[in-house]
Each structure stands twice: as C-alpha cells, then as structure tokens.
Amino acid sequence: MLQQREATRPFLSEAMSTRQQWVAIALAVVMTIWVLELVRRRKLREELAVVWFATALALLALAVNHDLLDWFRDLIGAAQGTSALFFGAIVFLMLLSLQFSIRLTKLAFQNKALAQRMVLLEEELQRARAQAGSSDPPSRPGSPPPPAA
Fold first, then answer.
1. What is the C-alpha to C-alpha distance for residues 13 and 6, in angstroms, rounded to an integer?
2. What is the DSSP-derived secondary structure letter of residue 10?
3. Contact 49, 38 (CB under 8 A)
4. 10-residue block means of pLDDT along the chain (149 residues)?
C-alpha cells in the first residue's frame, strides 16, 4: 500500500531533512534534561515526569526512524510527515488537557469536602468550649487559637 501511494505521490517518500532530524533529536534531549532537572528541584512530580519522558522518547523515535513516521502518516491519512506530527501533537495536548481537567475536578471535590469538614470541626470546638464554661470569646473560623495563660 505504501509503494502504491509513493508511486502516485512521489513527494511522500521524502524523509525529514537532516536539519529537521537534528533539531528533533536535540529537542528530545533538551526535553529529557529539563524534565530531570524539574524533578530534581521538586517542581514536577515523578508520575507526570513519566508522561514527558514518553513524549521525548516518541519524538526521538520519530526523528530517528523514518519508517515509523511514514507508518503513522499512512495510519492517519496525512499528506506529509509534518502534518502527521502536528496531528499527533494536537491529540497529545487534548489528552493532556483532559487528564488535568479530571485531576482539577477531583481536587475541587476534595477541597469542598475538606472545607465542610473544617466548618464542622470548628463548630464542635466552639460547643466544647461552651460546655467547659470557658469565658474566652469564640474565635472566628481560620483565626489562630488564643495564647495559653
């Protein structure tokens, strides 16, 4: 099937230029070093670093192995390899956005549950102080406890 396509459109058999290949390889290496540094400084969690390492590895594989890029291009029906790369990048960013949306939703639910629990605990603390006959004025939510005498 690939040979039939190449016969009808010969420009498809042209691989990435050497310059494009070296830029892609350099980008993959820089990305790997950058992710390692972010993990070392604790600015990126290890579980997310795996995603970025996989991305750098995929970029490196596509830059080094032209047959893989041709296969991906044929799989999605793109006219050129660069179109296939842009399509892959867009799909990757969409999936990444979806993953972060799911995490953000989960964190919002956890935040709401924690805020509700904090209010209940503060009310329970005020009731306990009232039963103990404390003459201290009730503290506002979020304020530090009064100093011990």
1. 6
2. G
3. yes
4. 50 64 92 95 92 92 89 93 89 94 96 97 95 66 61
